[in-house]
Structures are given as structure tokens and as C-alpha cells.
Design goal:
The complex is a heterotrimer of chains A (about 525), B (about 675) and C (about 100).
Chain A: H1 3-20, H2 29-49, E1 66-77, E2 83-92, H3 97-113, H4 121-140, H5 144-165, H6 170-198, H7 211-214, E3 233-234, E4 237-238, H8 239-254, H9 263-270, H10 273-298, H11 300-326, H12 331-352, H13 355-386, H14 397-400, H15 402-415, H16 422-440, H17 446-470, H18 480-486, H19 492-510, H20 513-532
Antiparallel strand pairs in A: 1-2, 3-4
Helix pairs in contact in A: 1-2, 1-4, 2-3, 3-4, 3-10, 3-13, 3-19, 4-5, 5-6, 6-8, 6-9, 8-10, 8-11, 9-12, 10-11, 10-12, 10-13, 11-12, 11-17, 11-20, 12-13, 12-16, 12-17, 13-15, 13-16, 13-19, 13-20, 15-17, 15-19, 16-17, 16-19
Chain B: H1 3-29, H2 38-59, E1 65-74, E2 77-85, H3 87-110, H4 117-136, H5 140-158, H6 165-196, H7 201-205, H8 210-213, E3 215-217, E4 220-223, E5 226-229, H9 231-247, H10 256-259, H11 265-274, H12 279-286, H13 293-316, H14 320-340, H15 344-379, H16 394-397, H17 399-413, H18 419-436, H19 444-468, H20 473-478, H21 489-500, H22 518-523, H23 535-560, H24 571-577, H25 582-654, H26 661-684
Antiparallel strand pairs in B: 1-2, 3-4, 4-5
Helix pairs in contact in B: 1-2, 1-4, 2-3, 3-4, 3-11, 3-15, 3-21, 4-5, 5-6, 6-9, 9-12, 9-13, 11-15, 13-14, 13-19, 13-24, 14-15, 14-18, 14-19, 15-17, 15-18, 15-21, 17-19, 17-21, 18-19, 18-23, 19-23
Chain C: H1 4-24, H2 28-49, H3 58-88
The chains are: A mainly alpha (about 525), B mainly alpha (about 675), C mainly alpha (about 100).
Chain lengths: ~525, ~675, ~100
């Protein structure tokens, strides 16, 4: 059963249908998109429920993946080079499955928030659904070429979504985002080609793009550039380390880590609400996912070698992002910087290469997916009402928008790591893993975890300060009575979206095994692979 | 106890814990009038109280009850969630549910008429749930979770009147300072997990548990196959203590508690006097074996210092709730001191007695504030209704409140016959005993505690005298004669009930000997030095004799003469009045420092990091422009140049083609003629 | 006997008059007349120099041939001029510049 293909291509088909429909029906496009995404959500829920997290650990063995689809895609005979072997190769394991569920839910929420989009609906929804396809594809692809195709495919709709439906400086932001990401992925392409020429399929003997073959050192051609045994050097740096760094930078831009983060605040601030939700909720996760799936699995030796630096980058991101967030006056920018801070925990957890750390990092990605979507959704709520989101322009919103304030408090406290919500489990275990690392594998020094925990303090500081400034006190609005009329409380549609996200965050916080059970075997397998070198 | 009874006990405790959560969820999720929920909450908390009593009866002096379930698995680590009830937690469970129930009943009248009252009941429910969870859980991770949740519910309750600026600043401050402490707690958890690979309290800290098996060898802290430098043992202890210090408002993290008085008084009494702030002490009690002697010394020093500092501040405050808040900090310092000197049982004992009398003090103060507030509303006065300088002579109007508050004050001073006497003297005596075995310098700890207890006698008697004796000073200020009423009946019932718990019989049948208290016996850690020790008679005598003198002194100052020496200009007075300038120092150094840092980091981000990116972008555009110029002018120029040269030549040659035959002919003629002429001349030459 | 030089002078004068007419006249017929004059100057030369060729008189034969050719050329030229006039309503050659540029 080609469940994954369905998951990937249903939105694409819906998008094509929207393109074909006449424009007079444009008020109904969103229902079509909604239908496609609901079907997708149901499918991914089905996948989740039927996912066996204990036996099928995935990582580097095809037989341990679930829902595998493998079709020959491009088989070009290159004469003396052998045959070009590119497969349409999909499959999921514990590392990717949680993201499918996350993506489809976040997509639903983003779609709900696109009710506010008013112009050029045809283009918007078609691009939106194209983006959905690309995102799903990235998480399912196991062939590096296919992965790269989906990875680049994501850029295109995003560029237009930000550049056409964004805020005042949207073109600047869109181009910045596009160039940043392209900068990373262009070099990634070089590494992919290098890997292609280094790896052969053990069955056919052809060079291959199959990621799983790339993870096995036996498949490397003797003396090829990325062969671990050959120890080749490029520009005086070991080739494998260089390739790791290149891939890492490509994904780190997505995560983003300091100092490659500056596209994020601009892109977030200028992007329309649904795109902000997708950016923060899903796209940042692709960075973390890529680091685990590709950087760590294919270049474990280089990963171990650079773990200290990754940890340092994580800690710096945590604290730097939080300090920046503290200085913001624009609510959306504040949340954007808080994303930088929260994703720092992901880096720290991954760098620890302990089961707690990586599980914590995975959990942090999932949790941040839900919470940042919620936060951006909430910003979108006041922005669509009064077209302003400067913190000093609002005061005492709790009095006029009690339901809104309730959800803001839930989102804020959840994302500052209040126990009972997923972020707490995630951050605590990222830190525990980082701390434990010195005892288990000696990769990260203990002070990193302790410094990282400062991020939790600063997180509390900027979020509570915002809460105090915007929501508490006597109501005083910059726009006066006019704003007070416009700032109506949440409607049913918004409450539905926010409730579903907060319930997810709460559920994962109280019963973390919902996520951990599914990914445990994969995490352990990954650690085994990395430690094998 | 067999398994079945263990299970039932656990279920009882669990239900007791979940009842308040039920009221939280029920009140928030079921819509209704804004003052809904009172009855539901009181019903639930009473049920919790009933169950807690049952649990207490089942567990006290019985083997520990411990049940757990698998919670989640990470990698190969299995995290379990469970219930661990020993004497300590059973006692805490009972104490919390009892005080919570009383405060619930008190709030019924105290909070009456507040808009959005349902939120108050819901938040109280959340608080009680987290507090119960905190005391019965068996895992450090869960303990940490509940630890933060009590902080969160305290945040909600301090900021209950969220339109007041001071209240929302106070709750932010409280939460952030507690967060700071929580980082310490978390660090402790990380160290424990790294060393022992479990967070199960009973495995770690029970007798013969992992912690006691870990040893120090050659500068390493070793447990089975794990080892880390032994400094980490000290760091772990300090980290946990840091967490406890934040929650229990110890120096240097104490400044949030006085500000937290912005919440309703009932909340202050429940959370910021009786239960939540004692959680720090409880935590130290739960993980006591982890502390090595250095850490214990630090705890003792900090406890003694905090006690002394807070007492001096309490001497000069004028806000009735702030005085009590500093008194709470001071008393918590006593408990910490007791923990530090190894008087574990006395610390818990003092926690219990203090919970009752401090709660009572707050609730009585609440009654006074309630009536003063009514007065203020009624006559539309512009006064601070919590200022003791405006009160006076209230005993005539509110006799019952007066009597109960007096009892609580006596217990706070530690007059024989009250519960406070038993617990406080236990601490003092054990502190002196402890100092016997220490270097001479550390004698300063018990002596400072002694001085603190005299300061306590002064500030609390000042409060009582100023509020209840003399005559109402408000009359002098406003030039009117006001009269107040006794607090509503329900409130006074609660006061009376609490007052009975300030008396000795509840804790020990012997009013003078703390060793016979069932709590100390139950906690099973009485020091084995007998009463032969001189301290056991000398200290109580000295404390009380001198305390009575001090009370008399304040009586002459504040009642008899009605005038106290004016010290308000002295440096020490101002130092104390400004709370030793801690707030100012923190504000100027940490808060402003971090804000400055964050602004400069943002400027850095914008100017340097983003600037670099933009520079790169602009440089690329510039280079592109340059190359475009080159392309157009040089590369294209050559091609175009060839073309234009041809064109120029063509244009020039074009002029010969006039199309006129005659011109051509003339040209032809001229050429032929010149040809001949040239030929002719060339031949000639 | 008239010396040879006199013939040459007359012929040169005729030729010069012809050239002058060809170069300066703005009327195609006058140019044609000029051309005829130049032709006749040449013929005159031919006839003159035939005196030295007493046996075959090829100069005179050639002159006759040239006269016939000239007559034919004049006929054709006049026809062209007539047609040009019909088309352009002028026979000034400077104004007939359709092929210019």
C-alpha cells in the first residue's frame, strides 16, 4: 500500500485542481484545501497508530523501515561510469514519523489561519499545497536525490508566499530567506555528488543515491573521496569532515543556529501568519531532522569529532536568542528570536549523542512545532484585527480579550517550559543528556548543560515581561477606542485551532511516552550507528 | 503493611491529590457565573482533608508506602511515576490539606464580591493539587514538575488582581526568581541522574539507598561504575539548596516574597506563609542524604543570616503584611539553619508549628485589612489600609481577632505553652549543640539565631501593640471618629480553629520538652544527647526572660508612652527600612545589567551579524554591477567597436556615391589626368 | 596640305566642348549632345590618323563603324530619355535619384 505516496501527493493533486478551477469559485478553494489536509491528517494519524516503534528502528536498514516504497526512477546508462541509479525511495522510522503527524497538524492550523488571506487566493492555496507536498516528501524520502528534489521544492512556494503575501519589507525578507537557504543547499549538492561517486549499491554495483547505503562504510568505493578508509583531504581538511560541515551548515541555516539565524526574524516578521506558522512549526524541524538523518548517520565520525562545537553552537544559540528576544518590541520578532533560543536546545541535545539528549531534542522539535505555531497564530490574531503588533502599543488586553489571554498564557507558559507541557520534558531531557554526555561518551563538558539551562530563565523573563506589558494592568491601547472595538475576542475557528495545539502540547507533556515510545528504538539505533563510527 | 493496603493508601493519597485538580478543571471548563466554584472547591478540599487524615492514620509510624508505575522510557532509561508516603509526606499532606481547607473557608467571606472569583477558586485548586503532588511523589523529576507548578499557581494567585501594576510586577518577579532557583534544582537533578541513572527518591535517598552507597575515593565521587570529581557532590548539594532557597525565600533569593504580598491575604497565608515557602525545607528533608558537611555548613550560615537579616527588616516596616512576610523569611531561615546543623526533625517540626501560627497571623491581619478596607470604601478615604501607623486600639472593635492574633504572636516569640516554644527552642538548642563540635568561629551561628529570636519578639509585639492597643490613629489624621466591626463569623471561626493549633497539646503533652513531641519522635531523628546538656535549660530560660523584657520595652514605647524614640534618620534604620538595599542592588546590577546586555546583543545582532549578511548581499550586488559594467564596456565594447569602425568607414565612403554621373566623370577625368601628369613628371625626372 | 596638328587641335577642342557639356549640363539631351561631340572628336582623330594608313584605310572604316554605333547609341539613349521623361516628368539627371542610398 502506497500510503506515504498518498500522504505526499494528495495536497499536490488538490493544488492542481485548484489551479484548474475557474477563479469565480475562489471563495471555495480553502474548503478544497481543507479537505485535502484533513485527509492527510487522518492518514498520518493512521500511520501513527499503526506505527510499531519497538521492532522497526529504521536508520540504516531498509527492512527496519516501515511503509517502504521503492521504485526505480531514473536509470540512465552512463557507459563507463555505470548506470545512474536514482530511486523513488520512501520509508519512515521513529525519526521521521513524528514529523509527519506534526506537519499535517501544523498544516491544518496554518490553513485555518489562512482564512484571513484575501487576495489572489488561487495562487496562495496552490503554493500552500505545493509546499505541503514538498514538506511531506522531505520527511519520507530515503534517496538523497529525491530528498534534495523535495528540499529544493520547498523553497519555491515559500519564496512566493513570503514575497507576495508578506508585509512591507516582504521582498527583502523573501530574497534573504531564499539566498540563505540556497547558499546552504548548493554546497549540499556538491556533497551529494561526491557521495554518489563514493558509494555503490552492493547488489547492482552501480553508484547510488540511496541514503541507507551511504550509512554503511562497506559500500564506499576504495579510495573514493568520502571513503573513511581513504582519509582523503580537501583544502587541508579531511574530506569527510568538510562534507559534514557543509551539510551541517546547510541544515543549520534551516534550524537556525547563531550566527546563521538572521533570515529568521525578517522572514517571520514579513511573512503572512500561515507562512510564519509553517516556517516555525515545520521548516525549522527539517534542519534538525536533516542533521540527525543525514549529517549524523552518514558522517558519524565527523559528527563525533565536531560534537563539542555543535554543543557550543547550541548553548550560544540558546542564550543569544533569548537575550535578543528580551530586547524586542515587536511581538512577532520576539517570538522569532525565542525560536532561535528553543532550537538551541535541539542542537545541544543532538550534540550530546546520548539517548536522553537526542530524544529530548526530538521532543523539543515536536513540542516547538506545536507551540511556535500556536504563538504565531496568536500574534496573527491581533495583527489581523488592528494591523499592529508592537508590544508597547497594547496594555491590559486581559480585560477585553479574556479567552485570547488564556491561550496566550497557555502558549507562553508552555513554551517557557512549565512542567505539564511538552517543552518542559523536551528541554529537561536535552539538558540532562548534555550533562550526562561527559560521563557516557565524553563529548560535551558539563558546563554546557548548566549554561544552557540559563536559557530557561531568560525564556521566563522575556515571556513574562511581555505578558505583563501587553496583557496585564489597566487597558490602554495606542489606537484608542477604535482598537477596542476591533479587538474582539477569539472566534470559534480560532479557538478550535488553538485548542488542538494546546491539547497536543499538554498531552505530550503529561504522557511523553506517546512520542518517546515511537522513536525510542530509532534513537538507540542511531546512537549505536554513531558510536560504531 | 501488605500490598493491598499499600495500594489503597496510595489510591487514597492520589484521590486526595486529584480532588483540587478536579476543582481547577471543573471551574474553568464549566461555564457559569463569575463567582461560581466556591462550594465545589470547598467540597473537594474537605474531601481531600478527609482522605489525608485517613492516609496519615495509615502511614504514621508504619512502614513506608511506595507504589509506582512505568511512566515513559527514554533510550534504556525507564522513568517511573509513583507515590512515596513516609512520615514526612503524610504529615505534610495532612498539614497542607488542613490549612488549605481552613483558608478555603476563610476566603468564602474574605474574597466575597470580587469579580472573576471563579478564577480564584480554580487557581487555589491548582495550587493545592501541585502542593499535594509535590509531597507525595516519588521521583525527583515529578517533584521538580510539581515544584514549578506551585510556583506557577503562586504566580497566578499573586497576580490575581492583574490590573494592579504592583501585583503583576510582583508575580513576574516571584516567578523569575523561583525559576532561577529551579535551575539549581535542575542542575541537581542532572548531577543525580548522571551519577545514579535514576531519579527515584526511594532508591536514592532511603536508608541504604544509592546516595549512601556512593563514596569519595581519591577525589572522585564513585557509585558502582560511575564516577565524577567529588566537587560535583558539593555542587549537587548547593544546587538543590539553591532551588530550595528560592522557594523558601532565603538570601540571596528572598526579595520576591515581600512583593508577593500583593496577592490576596488569604493567598499569602496559604502559599507564602504556610505551605509553598516551606516546600524548600521539605525538599531538603526529602533529599537530606545528598548534603555533605560543606553544604550543610553553607545551609546553616545562609539560614542564620537570612533569619537575622529579615528580622531586622521586619523591625521597621509599616505595612502589616510586609512585616509578616519578613517574619516568614526569618522563620524559614530558622528552619534552614536547623537543616544545616543537622536538626532535621526540628526543622520539620518548626515547619509544622510555623505553618499554623504564621497562617493565623496572616489571616488575622487579613481580618484587620478586610475591616480597614471596608472603612476606606465606606468613607472613600485615600489611605493605605495596610499601614499599621493608621491603626490602633482595634482590640475593642475586634476582640476575637485580637485574641487569636495575640496567641499566634506568642507562638512566634516562643513563649512557653505555645507550639512555637517547642520547635524554636529545639532549633536553638540543637544549634548550640552543633556549634560545640565546630570551630570557634561558627559559634556565631547559634548566637545570631538567639539575637534573631529576640528581634522577633520585638517586631511582632510592636505590630500587636500598634494595631490593637492605644487608640485609632486614623481618627487623628482624618479628624473623624470611625468605628470598626468584628470580622464576619466564618472568618473568626477559622481564626479560632487555627489558634487552637498554636497551643502545645497538639504537638507534645509536655509543654517544655520538645523531645517528647510526637512529630520529632515520628521523624525518628532525635539527637541522642540527653537533657543533661546545659543548653537544654539555659537557652529556653535566657530566650524567654529576655524576650519578656523586650516585649515590655515595646509595650512602654508603643502603648504606655505612645511614643517611641525616633530613629528614622539613623543609617541603620534606613538600611533596614530599605530592606538592606537588596532590591535596589538587584535592580541595578542584574535586571538592568541583563536588559542592557540584551539590548547590546540585539544591537550586535543587527549591526554585526545581520550587518555582515547585508554587507555580503550588498557586496555581491556591487560586484555584479562591476561585472556588468565590464561586460558592457569591455567585452561587448570590442564587438561593438569592430562594428562601428566598419560603419564609420562605410559612412565615409558613402559620400563618394553621389549617384551623379557627372561627378563620376569628373572624378574619372581628374584621375586620368593626374595619372598622366604623374607619369609625365615621373618620366621627366 | 593642312598639317596634322590642326586636326588634333580641332578634335581636342571638340572633345573639350563635349566634356564640358557632359559635365556641366543639367539636361540629359545636352549631355547626349556632349557625348556625341566627344565621339565625333574621336572619329575625327580616327579619320585624321587614317592618312598614315594608306593601304587599308582601316581608320576610316573604323570611323564609319563608330558613327553607326554612335547613331545606335543615340537612338537608345533618346529612347531612354524619352521614357525617363515620361516617368519622372524631368530629364535633369541630378533629380533622378531613386537608387540613391
Amino acid at each position: 500500500m502506497s500510503l506515504l505516496s498518498l500522504l505526499i501527493f494528495i495536497p499536490l493533486v488538490a493544488g492542481l485542481i485548484i489551479l484548474l478551477l475557474p477563479s469565480i469559485w475562489q471563495q471555495h478553494y480553502k474548503y478544497l484545501a481543507l479537505g485535502a489536509i484533513v485527509v492527510q491528517l487522518l492518514l498520518s494519524a493512521y500511520v501513527y497508530l499503526n506505527f510499531d516503534g519497538s521492532v522497526y528502528s529504521g536508520i540504516d536498514t531498509q527492512s527496519k523501515y516501515q511503509l517502504v516504497e521503492r521504485l526505480p526512477w531514473i536509470r540512465l546508462d552512463l557507459g563507463s561510469f555505470g548506470a545512474l541509479e536514482i530511486d523513488y525511495f520512501l520509508g519512515i522510522d521513529g525519526l521521521s514519523m513524528p514529523f509527519l503527524v506534526l506537519s499535517s497538524l501544523v498544516m491544518l492550523v496554518a490553513l485555518i489561519s489562512s482564512w484571513e488571506i484575501k487576495d489572489n487566493l488561487k495562487g496562495f492555496f496552490a503554493l500552500f499545497l505545493l509546499l505541503d507536498t514538498a514538506v511531506m516528501g522531505v520527511f519520507c524520502a530515503l534517496d538523497f536525490f529525491l530528498f534534495y528534489v523535495f528540499y529544493e521544492l520547498m523553497l519555491l512556494p515559500l519564496y512566493f508566499l513570503i514575497g507576495m503575501w508578506g508585509g512591507i519589507r516582504r521582498e527583502y525578507a523573501a530574497i534573504k530567506f531564499f539566498l540563505y537557504t540556497l547558499f546552504g543547499s548548493v554546497f549540499m549538492l556538491l556533497v551529494i555528488i561526491g557521495l554518489y561517486f563514493s558509494v555503490t549499491d552492493p547488489q547492482t554495483g552501480n553508484h547510488t543515491f540511496n541514503m541507507l547505503h551511504m550509512m554503511n562504510p562497506d559500500n564506499y568505493v576504495q579510495g573514493s573521496i568520502f571513503s573513511a578508509l581513504a582519509n582523503q583531504e580537501l583544502f587541508g581538511i579531511p574530506a569527510r569532515l568538510l562534507a559534514f560541515i557543509v551539510l551541517f551548515i546547510a541544515f543549520a541555516i534551516k534550524v537556525p543556529v547563531v550566527p546563521l539565524h538572521t533570515w529568521l526574524p525578517d522572514a517571520h516578521v514579513e511573512a503572512p501568519t500561515p507562512v510564519s506558522i509553517i516556517l516555525a512549526g515545520i521548516l525549522l524541524k527539517i534542519g534538525g531532522y536533516g542533521i540527525l538523518r543525514i549529517c549524523f548517520s552518514i558522517f558519524p565520525d565527523a559528527a563525533i569529532e565536531s560534537a563539542w562545537w555543535l554543543g557550543l553552537i547550541g548553548v550560544v544559540s540558546i542564550i543569544y536568542g533569548a537575550l535578543n528576544a528580551l530586547a524586542q518590541k515587536d511581538l512577532k520578532r520576539l517570538i522569532a528570536y525565542s525560536s532561535v533560543s528553543h532550537m538551541g536546545f535541539v542542537m545541544l541535545g543532538i550534540a550530546s549523542v546520548t539517548s536522553e539528549g537526542i530524544s529530548g531534542a526530538m521532543m523539543q522539535m515536536i513540542s516547538h512545532g506545536f507551540l511556535s505555531s500556536m504563538l504565531f497564530f496568536l500574534v496573527g490574531v491581533i495583527y489581523t484585527r488592528v494591523h499592529d503588533r508592537q508590544i508597547p502599543n497594547f496594555r491590559g488586553l486581559a480585560l477585553i480579550m479574556p479567552k485570547y489571554t488564556t491561550f496566550v498564557m497557555i502558549a507562553f507558559f508552555a513554551s517557557l517550559g512549565l512542567p505539564g507541557f511538552s517543552a518542559f520534558i523536551a528541554e529537561a531531557f536535552s539538558l540532562i543528556g548534555a550533562f550526562n554526555s561527559e560521563s557516557i561518551n565524553g563529548l560535551l563538558p558539563r558546563w554546557m548543560a548548566v549554561c544552557g539551562s540559563l536559557g530557561m530563565l531568560l525564556g521566563a523573563a522575556y515571556l513574562l515581561w511581555t505578558l505583563q506589558r501587553m496583557f496585564f494592568g489597566k487597558t490602554r491601547l495606542w489606537g484608542g477606542e477604535d482598537w477596542r472595538q476591533k479587538l474582539t475576542d477569539l472566534n470559534g475557528r480560532e479557538i478550535f485551532a488553538l485548542t488542538s495545539l494546546s491539547v497536543m502540547a499538554l498531552l505530550l507533556g503529561i504522557i511523553p511516552s506517546l512520542a518517546f515510545d515511537k522513536m525510542n528504538a530509532s534513537v538507540l539505533e542511531l546512537i549505536r550507528l554513531v558510536n560504531l563510527r | 503493611m501488605d500490598t493491598i493496603t499499600q495500594e489503597t493508601t496510595c489510591i487514597l493519597a492520589l484521590v486526595a491529590t486529584l480532588m483540587p485538580l478536579l476543582s481547577f478543571a471543573g471551574i474553568l471548563l464549566v461555564p457559569g457565573r463569575t463567582d461560581r466554584g466556591a462550594f465545589f472547591s470547598i467540597l473537594n478540599i474537605s474531601f481531600s482533608l478527609l482522605l489525608s487524615v485517613l492516609v496519615f492514620i495509615k502511614v504514621w509510624d508504619q512502614p513506608v508506602v511506595h507504589q509506582q508505575l512505568e511512566w515513559f522510557t527514554i533510550g534504556n532509561w525507564h522513568f517511573k511515576a509513583g507515590i512515596l508516603i513516609n512520615n514526612l509526606s503524610a504529615l505534610m499532606l495532612l498539614l497542607i490539606s488542613l490549612i488549605a481547607a481552613l483558608v478555603h473557608i476563610y476566603s468564602l467571606k474574605y474574597m466575597e464580591g470580587d469579580p472573576y472569583l471563579f478564577r480564584y477558586w480554580a487557581y487555589l485548586g491548582l495550587f493545592c493539587f501541585s502542593m499535594f503532588g509535590l509531597v507525595i511523589t516519588d521521583s525527583l523529576l515529578l517533584l521538580y514538575m510539581f515544584w514549578e507548578l506551585v510556583g506557577f499557581s503562586s504566580y497566578l494567585l499573586i497576580g490575581f488582581w492583574f490590573t494592579r501594576k504592583a501585583a503583576v510586577q510582583a508575580n513576574k518577579k516571584a516567578f523569575i526568581m523561583n525559576r532561577l532557583g529551579d535551575l539549581g534544582f535542575l542542575t541537581g537533578i542532572m548531577i543525580i541522574f548522571t551519577q545514579f541513572q535514576t531519579l527515584d527518591i526511594s532508591l536514592l535517598f532511603s536508608e541504604g539507598g544509592f546516595v549512601s552507597h556512593a563514596t569519595i575515593q581519591n577525589g572522585f565521587w564513585v557509585f558502582s561504575s560511575n564516577k565524577m570529581p567529588d566537587i560535583w557532590l558539593t555542587i549537587a548539594g548547593l544546587a538543590f539548596f539553591f532551588g530550595a532557597a528560592a522557594k523558601s525565600a532565603q538570601f540571596p533569593l528572598h526579595t520576591w516574597l515581600p512583593d508577593a504580598m500583593e496577592g490576596p491575604t488569604s493567598v499569602s497565608s496559604l502559599i507564602h506563609a504556610a505551605t509553598m515557602v516551606a516546600a524548600g525545607v521539605f525538599l531538603l528533608g526529602r533529599i537530606y542524604p545528598i548534603f555533605n558537611s560543606e553544604v550543610l555548613l553553607v545551609i546553616a550560615v545562609i539560614g542564620a543570616f537570612t533569619a537575622f537579616m529579615a528580622a531586622t527588616i521586619a523591625l521597621v516596616q509599616n505595612d502589616i503584611k510586609r512585616i509578616l512576610a519578613f517574619s516568614t523569611i526569618s522563620q524559614l531561615g530558622f528552619m534552614m539553619l536547623a537543616m544545616g546543623v543537622g536538626a532535621y526533625g526540628s526543622a520539620i517540626f518548626h515547619l509544622i508549628t510555623h505553618a499554623f501560627f504564621k497562617c493565623l497571623l496572616f489571616l488575622s491581619a487579613g481580618a484587620v485589612i478586610h475591616e480597614m478596607h471596608h472603612l476606606k470604601e465606606k468613607y472613600k478615604l485615600d489611605i493605605d489600609h495596610q499601614d499599621i501607623r493608621l491603626m490602633g486600639g482595634l482590640r475593642k472593635f475586634m476582640p476575637l481577632t485580637f485574641i487569636t492574633m495575640l496567641l499566634a504572636a506568642l507562638a512566634l516569640i516562643g513563649i512557653p505553652g505555645t507550639s512555637g516554644y517547642l520547635s524554636k527552642d529545639a532549633i536553638l538548642i540543637q544549634a548550640f549543640e552543633w556549634s560545640e563540635g565546630q570551630a570557634g568561629f561558627w559559634k556565631v551561628i547559634p548566637y545570631s539565631a538567639l539575637i534573631t529570636s529576640w528581634l522577633t519578639a520585638f517586631y511582632i509585639s510592636r505590630l500587636i501593640f500598634k494595631v490593637f492597643f492605644g487608640r485609632l490613629r486614623l481618627n487623628d489624621i482624618c479628624g473623624q471618629t470611625f468605628s470598626l466591626h468584628e470580622a464576619p463569623k466564618i472568618m473568626t471561626y477559622v481564626l479560632v480553629a487555627l489558634a487552637t493549633f498554636c497551643l502545645f497539646p497538639f504537638f507534645s503533652f509536655n509543654p517544655l520538652h520538645y523531645e517528647h513531641s510526637w512529630i520529632i519522635e515520628g521523624l525518628n531523628v532525635v539527637s541522642n544527647i540527653g537533657r543533661v546538656n546545659i543548653y537544654h535549660t539555659l537557652i529556653p530560660a535566657a530566650v524567654n526572660l529576655f524576650a519578656v523584657l523586650i516585649i515590655y520595652l515595646s509595650f512602654t514605647w508603643y502603648v504606655k508612652r505612645g511614643k517611641s524614640p525616633d530613629l528614622s534618620n539613623s543609617a541603620l534604620f534606613r538600611f533596614a527600612e530599605n530592606q538592606w538595599y537588596f532590591d535596589k542592588i538587584y535592580q541595578n546590577s542584574f535586571v538592568n545589567g541583563i536588559l542592557l546586555l540584551s539590548r547590546s546583543v540585539f544591537a550586535f545582532d543587527k549591526a554585526v551579524v545581520d550587518g555582515f549578511v547585508n554587507l555580503l548581499g550588498r557586496a555581491t550586488v556591487l560586484i555584479a554591477g562591476l561585472s556588468q559594467w565590464l561586460d558592457r564596456r569591455v567585452v561587448d565594447g570590442v564587438v561593438n567597436g569592430a562594428g562601428s569602425v566598419t560603419k564609420i568607414i562605410g559612412n565615409f565612403a558613402r559620400h563618394f556615391q553621389t549617384g551623379r554621373l557627372q561627378h563620376y566623370l569628373v572624378t574619372m577625368l581628374l584621375i586620368v589626368l593626374s595619372f598622366f601628369i604623374i607619369k609625365y613628371f615621373s618620366q621627366a625626372i | 596640305m593642312i598639317p596634322l596638328a590642326h586636326f588634333m587641335f580641332v578634335s581636342a577642342a571638340l572633345f573639350c566642348i563635349g566634356i564640358y557639356a557632359v559635365l556641366s549640363k543639367r539636361n540629359a539631351i545636352m549631355i547626349l549632345v556632349g557625348i556625341e561631340l566627344m565621339l565625333n572628336a574621336a572619329i575625327l582623330n580616327l579619320v585624321t590618323f587614317s592618312k598614315h594608313d594608306k593601304f587599308e584605310a582601316s581608320g576610316q572604316v573604323f570611323a564609319l563603324f563608330a558613327i553607326i554605333l554612335a547613331a545606335a547609341a543615340v537612338a537608345v539613349s533618346l529612347a531612354i530619355i524619352l521614357n525617363v521623361y515620361k516617368y519622372y516628368r524631368t530629364i535633369d539627371p541630378t533629380k533622378i535619384d531613386n537608387l540613391r542610398n
